[in-house]
C-alpha cells in the first residue's frame, strides 16, 4: 500500500487504474490511519466507515469497467458545514448537533457523480467563525506538527486530516481565510476560489457575500484536481458565475509572469524567520524566471480587517436568525415563543457566535447602520478597486498567509488578537478574488518545526494561473 503521508491524487489514480491496489484497500488504509491517529488529533467529528467502504466497492466496479473519472475511489474528508443527504451536518454547533441534511450540496452531488469516497465530516470552528478550531462545540482539533498548538481554523479538521494522512484531500470553506490559514498552519496547500466559481448551494451560510467552498491537498495539484471536480455554474446558487468566467492560461503560457509584493503591508508584522521564509519562496520564483516587483496595495492593512469585522458579523447575524428552535435542530421547551427563541439560542450558540450576532445586530441597527455597515460596504468597494488596479500591472500578488506559525491553545483568548490572524487573508475575501496558500518551509518554535504559508492572489477567475505559480513556489 502507498505511503499515506506522501500519496497524491495523480499517483493514486494511476495505481487504482493499474489495479496495483483497489479503492477498497485504499479506503481501508485511511480508515486504519484514522483509528490510529484521530484519538489524539480529533480532525473528525464522525467517520463513515460503513458507507465509505461501500462507496469504495462501487468505485472498484467503475474502475473495473474502465470508466473511472479523476476522483473515482479517491478518499475525501468533508467539512461539517457541507450538506450530505441523510447525514448530520452540525457546523460544529450544539444547535445543529442532531440536524440531518435532507439534500446534497452541489459540490457533493458532483463528487458523488465521480465516485469519490467520503471518509467523514471534519471539525471546525462553530459556524466557521474563528481561526483556531477552538470554537468547535465538540472540542478542538490539534495540529499534527505539534499537539500543543492549534491547526488553524475554521477548516482545522480538514487541514489536519490531509496533513496527517487521514484523508487524501478535503473540502473546506473560506470566508475570511478558513481554508488558507489552516492549510498554512498544517503545511498543506489550500485554495479559496473566486467568489461564485463554486456553488454555495448546500453550504451552511456564515457570511454569504464572503463564503466560498475551497479545497485542501498536500500539493497544489491535489487542490487543483478537487477544485476542477466541484467548480462550475449552478442555477441553485444565485451568485454563481457563468461558465464563461473560467479562464485558462491561454496565450500567457510561456510568458514571464510579474509578481507584485505589497511589502508595506507586512513589513512590521513578521518575525525574522517568517520573513526569511517568505523571501526564500520569492527567490524560488525569481530563479524560475518570474519578475518580482514591489507594489502598493492599500495604505493600512488594518482597514480591510475592520471592514471584514463589520460585514462578517452583519451577515452572520442575519443568516443565523433562522436558528430559532422551531425550524432546525435544537429546540428548548418554554412557556412562550419568545422564551423558546432565547433559551434555544442561548443554549445552542457558543461565545464567539453570540459575539458576532451581537456585533452584527448592532452594526445593522437603525441609527448605526449608516455609520458602520454602509460605510464598511463603501470601503469594501475601495478595497476591491485597489486589487483591480494592482492586478492590472502584475499577474499575481504574494503575501505571507499569516503573521506567524501555529499558536498555542488559549494563546489568542482575546477575540481581537484572534481577528489579527486574518490580516492577510480577509482582503482577498472582501474583493472576491481567488488565492492559494502553499507551503513555504518551516520556522522553529520551542524546538519544533512549524510550517508557514505563502499566499498567491490573482484576479477573478485566475485559478489556473495560481496553480501554475503555486506549483513553482511550493516547497513540498
Ligand atoms: N477567521 C475569520 C473569521 O473568524 C475567517 C473565518 C472563515 O473564513 N470562515 O471570520
Automatic annotation (TrEMBL):
Q: Quaternary structure per UniProt? A: Heterotrimer of A, B and C subunits.
EC number(s): the record gives 6.3.5.7
Q: Where is the Amidase domain?
A: 25-466
Q: Which NCBIfam families does the UniProt entry name for this protein?
A: gatA (TIGR00132)
The protein's GO terms of the molecular function aspect are: ATP binding; glutaminyl-tRNA synthase (glutamine-hydrolyzing) activity
- Name the family the entry cites: Belongs to the amidase family. GatA subfamily.
Bias kind Polar residues: ranges = 134-146, 239-253
Listed GO cellular component terms?
glutamyl-tRNA(Gln) amidotransferase complex
Q: Locate the region Disordered.
A: 134-155, 234-253
**Reactions catalysed, as given in the entry:** L-glutamyl-tRNA(Gln) + L-glutamine + ATP + H2O = L-glutaminyl-tRNA(Gln) + L-glutamate + ADP + phosphate + H(+)
* Protein name in UniProt: Glutamyl-tRNA(Gln) amidotransferase subunit A
Per the record, a Pfam family? Amidase
Amino acid at each position: 500500500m502507498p505511503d499515506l503521508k506522501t500519496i497524491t491524487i495523480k499517483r493514486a489514480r494511476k495505481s487504482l487504474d493499474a489495479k496495483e491496489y483497489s479503492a477498497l484497500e485504499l479506503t481501508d488504509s485511511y480508515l486504519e490511519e484514522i483509528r490510529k491517529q484521530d484519538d489524539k488529533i480529533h480532525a473528525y467529528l464522525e467517520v463513515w466507515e460503513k458507507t465509505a467502504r461501500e462507496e469504495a466497492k462501487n468505485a472498484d466496479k467503475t474502475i473495473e469497467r474502465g470508466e473511472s473519472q479523476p476522483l473515482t475511489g479517491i478518499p475525501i474528508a468533508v467539512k461539517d458545514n457541507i450538506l450530505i443527504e441523510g447525514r448530520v451536518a452540525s457546523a460544529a454547533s450544539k444547535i445543529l448537533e442532531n440536524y440531518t441534511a435532507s439534500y446534497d450540496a452541489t459540490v457533493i452531488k458532483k463528487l458523488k457523480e465521480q465516485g469519490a469516497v467520503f471518509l467523514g465530516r471534519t471539525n471546525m470552528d462553530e459556524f466557521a467563525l474563528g481561526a483556531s478550531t477552538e470554537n468547535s462545540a465538540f472540542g478542538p482539533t490539534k495540529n499534527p506538527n505539534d499537539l500543543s498548538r492549534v491547526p488553524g481554523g475554521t477548516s482545522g479538521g480538514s487541514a489536519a486530516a490531509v496533513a496527517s494522512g487521514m484523508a487524501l484531500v478535503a473540502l473546506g470553506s473560506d470566508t475570511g481565510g478558513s481554508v488558507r490559514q489552516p492549510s498554512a498552519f498544517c503545511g498543506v496547500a489550500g485554495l479559496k476560489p473566486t467568489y461564485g466559481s463554486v456553488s454555495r448551494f448546500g453550504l451552511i451560510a456564515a457570511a454569504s457575500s464572503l463564503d466560498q467552498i475551497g479545497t485542501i491537498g498536500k500539493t497544489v495539484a491535489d487542490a487543483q484536481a478537487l477544485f476542477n471536480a466541484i467548480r462550475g455554474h449552478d442555477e441553485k446558487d444565485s451568485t454563481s458565475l457563468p461558465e464563461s468566467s473560467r479562464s485558462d492560461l491561454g496565450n500567457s503560457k510561456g510568458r514571464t509572469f510579474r509578481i507584485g509584493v505589497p511589502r508595506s503591508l507586512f513589513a512590521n508584522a513578521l518575525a525574522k524567520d517568517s520573513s526569511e521564509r517568505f523571501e526564500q519562496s520569492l527567490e524560488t520564483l525569481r530563479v524560475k524566471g518570474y519578475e518580482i516587483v514591489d507594489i502598493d496595495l492599500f495604505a493600512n492593512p488594518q482597514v480591510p480587517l475592520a471592514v471584514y469585522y463589520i460585514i462578517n458579523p452583519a451577515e452572520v447575524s442575519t443568516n443565523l436568525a433562522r436558528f430559532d428552535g422551531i425550524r432546525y435542530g435544537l429546540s428548548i421547551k418554554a412557556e412562550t415563543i419568545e422564551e423558546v427563541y432565547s433559551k434555544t439560542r442561548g443554549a445552542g450558540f457558543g461565545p464567539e457566535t453570540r459575539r458576532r450576532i451581537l456585533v452584527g445586530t448592532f452594526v445593522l441597527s437603525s441609527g448605526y447602520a449608516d455609520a458602520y455597515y454602509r460605510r464598511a460596504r463603501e470601503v469594501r468597494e475601495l478595497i476591491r478597486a485597489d486589487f483591480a488596479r494592482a492586478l492590472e500591472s502584475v499577474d499575481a500578488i504574494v503575501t505571507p498567509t499569516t503573521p506567524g506559525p501555529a499558536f498555542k491553545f488559549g494563546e489568542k483568548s482575546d477575540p481581537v488578537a484572534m481577528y489579527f490572524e486574518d490580516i492577510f487573508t480577509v482582503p482577498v475575501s472582501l474583493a472576491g478574488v481567488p488565492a492559494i496558500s502553499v507551503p513555504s518551509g518551516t520556522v522553529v518554535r520551542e524546538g519544533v518545526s512549524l510550517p508557514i504559508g505563502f499566499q498567491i492572489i490573482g484576479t477573478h477567475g485566475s485559478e489556473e494561473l495560481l496553480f501554475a505559480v503555486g506549483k513553482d513556489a511550493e516547497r513540498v
